[in-house]
Amino acid sequence: MTDALPTLPERHTVLRSFAGHLEAGPDAVFNQLVTAMASGAAGGGNVHIDRDRRRLVLRRGWWYRGEYQVLPEEEAGSLVQYEIINVAQLLPWAGSWAAASVLRAAPRAFQALLTGLSHS
């Protein structure tokens, strides 16, 4: 894990976005997210962290970039945002094609992450 976020390439496509509310405060949620990614939930990717902005970027393979951000909710709790981004530079269409299985699994995986974070 590193503390510097990699720059998002100029050529990229957001393939899917998710958001979910948790009752815990944003600092606690972000720390749990970092722990989850460090303990293997990243699936072998490179994890980059910006603690000041509560952002975490996961890079895996030649096309995948996952961006997580934890924001404070106005009333209470936290909003967890997640984007799946195709960062393939040579053949961007191939990244979109390769993303099919990830995109199919993403809603269930995001919900499982939120459930895990809320029980930590």
**Main sheet?**
5 strands, antiparallel
- List the uncertain runs: none
Order of helices and strands: EHEEEEHH
Overall form: globular
Brief summary:
The protein has 120 residues and is α+β, with helices and mostly antiparallel strands. It is 35% helix and 32% strand.
Features:
five-stranded antiparallel sheet; 3 helices; 5 strands; 32% strand; globular
How would you characterize this protein structure?
By secondary structure, the chain is an alpha+beta fold. Helix content is 35%, strand content 32%. It is built from three helices and five strands, in the order E-H-E-E-E-E-H-H. It has helices at 26-41, 92-98, 100-118, and strands at residues 13-22, 46-50, 55-60, 64-72, 78-86. The longest helix is centred in the last third of the chain and has 19 residues, at 100-118. The protein is globular, with a radius of gyration of 14 Å. The model has no long low-confidence stretch (mean pLDDT 90).
Task: Please give the structural blueprint.
Layout: E1 13-22, H1 26-41, E2 46-50, E3 55-60, E4 64-72, E5 78-86, H2 92-98, H3 100-118
